[in-house]
Amino acid sequence: METGKLFFQQRRQFYQIKIKFSSLFRMVTCLIASFLLLNTASAQFTPCTGCTANDDHVDSVVLVQLNPAYTPTNGQPQYINLASTCSGSTAITGYLKISFTQNATTRYGISLAGNILVNGQYSSTFTFCDPAQTNSGSFVKYVSGFPINYTCGTKLELQNLFIGWGNSSAKNVCPIINNQICAPSPHCEQLPLTPGGPPIVIVTPLSPNFSATGSCSAGKTAQTYSFNALDATSGTTGGTLPYSYSWKIVNKTTSVQVATMTGSNPSYDFAQAGAGTGTYTVTLTVTDAATPAVVSSTSKDITVISCCNLSPPTLSVIQPTCANANGSVSVSAPIGSDYVYSNNGTTYQSTASFTVAAGATYNITVKQLSTGCISSATSGTINAQPSAPVAPTTSVTQPTCSDATATITVTSSTTGLTFSFDQGAYGAYPSTGY
Predict the structure, then answer these.
(1) Strand partners, 102
(2) Is the link from the previous residue into 72 a cis peptide, with omega within 30 of 0?
(3) Calpha distance 130→166 (Å, rounded)
(4) Nearest Cα residue to 223 out of 308, 281, 346, 300
(5) Residues 6 or more apart whose Cβ sits within 8 Å of residue 273
(6) Is the pLDDT of residue 6 over 50?
(7) What are 393-427's pLDDT values in tens digits?
(8) Residue 218 and residue 375 in contact, taking contact as beta carbons nearer than 8 Å
(9) If DSSP codes are grouped into helix, strand and coil, which group holds residue 207?
(10) pLDDT reading at 228 higher than 90
């Protein structure tokens, strides 16, 4: 009897262990499947339709990083903020921190999806689901399982952000069934609310940067430089918009400050007194709109070169003829491989001649490639094509017994003509004898 009781208890324990193991196995399998389904990059996410609710307002999307000191038992946060600024090409592995304000009662679970843009170009897609309840007020979700490889100075944006939620515990939006992210029960919204609207800027460390372009204008002895802190490929990124800008230009040889400027796209004429050619250090300081504000600076050296004072080009002009309706204009000075030529001040060519229609004007300028200097124009107008003269009339005196020479007399109502008997030499005489 005791033996049978013991056998029964052992079998019961065996079944209990088996049941617990099966439950654990199903749970682990579910978690793995959810991770593979929801937290890996896939094809580019396209906007869902019918997502017009506005229960959740996105306050900000910030790139954060894992806390190296975190363990589940030490009370440290799992995610921490990145440094407020960065420089160079520092590489960071980050995660999305999305802050919401919920203006509705309890919601059961939240599902997210969207496309990550790097410098305006599609990079990857993420999906995420958290079954936790949320209530009216503010809350934060960290998109775990989707690391973003961020390089300092690149611009990150979030496009077509999808937000879905359930309105009862029986209709929790998580887990997403069969990857049907666009079919939550019962509500969802899509940001931006206006289709095709601007993407959400992901807040990254402030990284000041700018482009600098020198050019020569006619009559200038040194270059003018244009600076652009919002250049598409080498401009300022990160921080909190809008920015304010201050610039300082210092002569690197003399350490003399020659200028200060403001704005995102200023320019400076180095031909003015106190500047001139040479090497200068340009420093940009950017202040963002965060509270407290983040301030960061960057510097670059530029070389200002001389702008030659090119004289207007010397031209050789060929006018239209009866046989050729067009004229031509050729530059005789300056010429050489360091020069290009234009008849409109915009398009330049290496050849120094232009075909110009009869009656048209020309405005020829020369650009020196080594300095960028452009001359003032030499201008003029090509003549109209001349009309062929009216055929002359002739009278012939035939030879006689006493005079073996015939005389041809040519008359014309047009003055200033020359004549040829056989289309050879032309002369200004009205008659000739043969």
Answers:
(1) 56, 137
(2) no
(3) 11
(4) 308
(5) none
(6) no
(7) 777 778 888 777 777 777 766 666 777 766 667 76
(8) yes
(9) strand
(10) yes
| 314 touches 378 (CB < 8 A) | yes
What the block records as the tokens of 86 is 């960065």
For the chain, the maximum distance between any two Cα atoms, rounded to a whole number of angstroms, is 174
Lowest mean pLDDT among 16-20, 51-55, 139-143, 406-410: 16-20
Short-list 264, 241, 249, 111, CA closest to 188? 111
pLDDT band at 220 (very low <50, low <70, confident <90, very high): confident
Provide the phi-psi class of 131: left if phi over 0, else alpha when psi is between -120 and 50, else beta: alpha
> Could you tell me the sign of the dihedral formed by the alpha carbons of 16, 22, 25, 26, in that order?
negative
* pTM as predicted: 0.61
> CB count, 10 Å around CB of 136?
13
Q: How many helices (H) and strands (E) does the chain have?
A: 1, 26
Q: What single string gives the DSSP state of each residue in 76-120?
A: --SEEEPPSB--TT-EEEEEEEEEEEE-SS-EEEEEEEEEEEETT
Q: Is the pLDDT of residue 7 over 60?
A: no
Residue showing tokens 């209530």: 135
The two structure tokens encoding residue 252: 């690197």
DSSP 8-state assignment for residue 198: P
245 and 260 Cβ atoms separated by less than 8 Å: no
3-state secondary structure of 5: helix
The answer for 13, left when phi > 0, alpha when psi is -120 to 50, beta otherwise, is alpha
CA dihedral sign of residues 12, 15, 19, 25: positive
192-212, pLDDT tens digit by residue?
Answer: 876 678 899 999 999 999 999
Tell me the three state secondary structure of residue 317.
Answer: strand
In degrees and rounded to multiples of 5, residue 117 shows phi and psi of -110, 135
Residue-wise burial string across 90-119, b where 16 or more C-beta atoms lie within 10 A, e elsewhere = eebebbbbbebebeeeebbbbbbbbbbbbe
| Residue 271 near residue 222, CB atoms below 8 Å | yes
Q: Sign of dihedral through CA atoms 110, 93, 148, 118? A: positive
- C-alpha 278/C-alpha 253 separation (Å) is 8
Structure tokens at 413: 């109502």
- Specify whether the CB–CB gap between 115 and 121 falls below 8 A: no
DSSP letter assigned to residue 235 = S
Cα gap 242→244, rounded to integer Å: 7
Name the residue type at position 146.
F
